[in-house]
Amino acid sequence: MAIDRRRFLRNGLLASGTVITSPWVFQTGARAAGEVKVGVLFSLTGGLSIIEKSLHDATMMAISEINAAGGVKGMKVVAIAEDGASDPKTYNEKASKLVIQDKVPTVFGSYTSASRKAVLPVFEKRNNLYFYPTYYEGFECSKNVIYTGAVPNQQLSNFIPWIIKTLGKKKFFIVGSNYIYPREMAKVSKILIEKNGGEWIADEYLELGHSEWGSMVNKIKSSGCDVVLSNVVGDSVVAFYREYKNQGLTHDKLPICATVTSEIEIAAMGAEYAVGSYTSFPYFQAIDTDRNKAFVERYRAFVKDPKAVTHHALESSYFQVFLWKQAAEKAAEITPTAIREAVKGQEFDAPNGHVKIDPENLHTYLTPRIAQWLPDGQGKIIDAYKEPVVPLPYVAYGETPTNLFCTGKGLDTAKLKT
Amino acid sequence: MLEVLFIGLSLGSILLLVALGLAITYGAMGVINMAHGEMVMVGAYVTVLSGIWLGTNIFVAIPLAFIVTALLGLLIERVVVRRLYGRLLDTLLATWGIAILIQQAVRLEFGLSFLGIHLQGLGPGLQNVAVPPFLQGTFSILGADINRYRTFIILVTAILALVTWFIIYRTSMGTQVRAIIRNPRMAAACGIDVTRINALTFAFGSGLAGVAGVMMSGFKTVFPDMGTSMVVDGFLVVVMGGVGSLLGSVLSAGILGEINGLVAAATNDILARAVVFGVVIAIIVLKPKGLFALKGR
To answer: Which chain B residues are closer than 8 Å to A375 by Cβ?
Structure first.
């Protein structure tokens, strides 16, 4: 059948008209049914999508589980997912879109500190609420962000003393990627190393995303250190561990003790390169509880990948949605301010154990753990705190549990200066 | 000190590995091939996939990756690059587009991920290549511990450079390639089939990138974006060495590698990288045609 031009044009117009109107029909229809919209903002494209996609999936899984159990106050939770595209500027635009146009009361998102810093002004200016699942460097105090990942004291306060006392290693070579997180981690590490009677002999950095480790590993070799503290992030981790072994260094003589190397990086480098090295995180896939095993199974089913690994930021992405749900149910109304007030002190039994939002600084009580990597790519948990530890985002500047710098009133800058 | 020099040599060999293919496509054909890094990436993925699906090791992957990327290069030349000879900036844009297409094809598993099908070894994640145990660790020479895998890379690079030299300077096809470098129209007038030789040259350059990818996969991370940064380093080497000069590329790769290694050992890697860029800028300013420019008549 030959399509004449007029009919073609008419059909085309009809088709495009349907495309334009359908979202509108969908939105009005859905609103009537009673639902809560939330934003989900992770990078689904670009260099960081490798890890952020898994955080996105964990968030979506939590939302679907909440909906399956009846939603929030009987209302269905609808996720509006946006793509941060591994670019802080895109993050800022998408966050504005979610807050201003979609009017969501909460957004779950971000992996890197750069993307969190980029969206922070949006949430502070509009007094909205952001749930941030990643371990980060601390030094931030916002009443518009709920931090559910570890801060430096929850990764290092048990790690450094343990390295010095249990492993008997005293000379630290600190190595990291060149940006804010590794540098802040190094600052906290140095305080802890000196307090525990060790010494640090070098503090070196490699460009972020750089994977040529030849010179650095050679430097480690000739430095006379007896332990390497690694704050290397991203894909550089893989090249680092491979070069380490290829230059003849072994983890039983000179172990790498890492704060970022998770199950994802281990799987990517090949477990044989990491066997015997250590990592400190509040969560490992290997945590031997029924709750965690069930969580891993559900996650694998959800992403349809029987070999998918879980890791700390992923687990935080998952449980923070439940903390939000409990707060939204407790709050009188579904607004950012009401949810924030309700989330203070909220507790939940997460896959890693019991977690609690600190009512003052809005960070999360987590249980620090140390794992040694096994040939199967899983960590063997060899040391853990008995109970969750108070989060101290300003520990590098002298913050203690009895002297909080960041409280419900905001940051006490006078304490920061002393 | 020997170890520092060795690392510099190794850095140089890695630079040359990527630059060899570029030296041919850019030098000989006047095509700024931004997809060259993606050819390296494809080569790395051939290693990953052949390891998973065929159970073969890195040695089998070398010829396999060469064939796959050479064919892919031939396809790109036939479909796109052929129409753009003589338009330098257009080749840059077109091949950049191809680079993004290839990256996304790998990330989306050739579109299968839309249908919910997952191919092991593809996708946006980090991939892992097993290296035979005898290429891991070190061996000793003169009291220095020498990295086996890096030695392997240096050897492969040397062999590839020799093969390339032989083809370009000792075969009749190479003579035709050199004639085209000097003056494509005159070469055509002398009866050289320029389109055919160009297609084969592009395929060969791409194949070299594929082998580079196999070598990279053994000690760097394999993921869809891995080639992007390499192509920049490759161009640095080619431009500094002098466009169209194989010897220039070899020497400039060696010089940049050693500078990088020595400065990194004395100070740190971040400064070393800045010094390398500084040296390249200085050379381009002082000798705009590079260290070994062809003398035109």
So the answer is: none
pLDDT given at position B294: 67
How far, in whole angstroms, is CA B268 from its chain's centroid?
26
Closest CA to B256 of B288, B227, B222, B291: B291
Q: So what's the pLDDT on residue B138?
A: 82
pLDDT tens profile A375-405: 999 999 999 998 999 999 998 888 889 888 9
Contacts of B243 (CB under 8 A, 6+ apart): B26, B27, B289, B290, B293, B294
A15-20 contacts at long range (C-beta below 8 A, 24 or more positions apart): none
Considering only alpha carbons, which residue of chain B is nearest residue A307?
B120
Grouping H, G, I as helix, E, B as strand and the rest as coil, residue A280 is strand
Q: Where are the domains of chain B?
A: 2-107+145-286
Query: How far is the C-alpha of B200 from the C-alpha of B152, rounded, in Å?
Result: 28
In terms of pTM, does the model score above 0.80?
yes
Burial of B133 (C-beta count, 10 Å sphere; 0-12/13-18/19+): exposed
* CB contact residues (below 8 A), chain B span 212-271, against chain A: 218-221, 223, 225-226, 229, 260-261, 264-265, 268-270
Q: H/E element holding B176?
A: helix B172-182
Task: For A219, name the nearest residue in chain B, comparing CA atoms only.
Answer: B265
Helix intervals (H) in A157-289: 159-165, 180-195, 214-222, 236-246, 263-269
The C-alpha of B175 sits at a distance from chain A's nearest C-alpha, in angstroms, of: 37
Q: Write the ipTM.
A: 0.81
Instruction: Write out chain A residues lying below 8 Å of B220, CB-based.
Output: 211, 238-239, 242
State how far the Cα of A104 lies from the Cα of A102, in Å rounded to an integer: 6
Q: Identify all chain A residues contacting B3, using CB atoms and an 8 Å cutoff.
A: 218
Q: What gap in Å lies between CA B147 and CA B284, rounded to an integer?
A: 33
Listed by number, the residues of chain A in 120-149 with a beta carbon closer than 8 Å to a beta carbon of chain B are none
Amino acid code (one letter) for A201: I
Out of 2.30.29, 2.60.34, 1.10.3470, 2.60.40, the CATH code matching B2-107+145-286 is: 1.10.3470
**What is the distance between the alpha carbons of residues A416 and B121, in angstroms, rounded to a whole number?**
49
Question: Residue B144: closest CA among chain A residues belongs to which residue?
Answer: A247
Strand A369-373 vs strand A278-281: parallel, antiparallel, or unpaired? antiparallel
Task: State CA A275 to chain mean position distance.
Answer: 24
Q: In this complex, do B126 and A267 lie within 8 Å of one another by their Cβ atoms?
A: yes
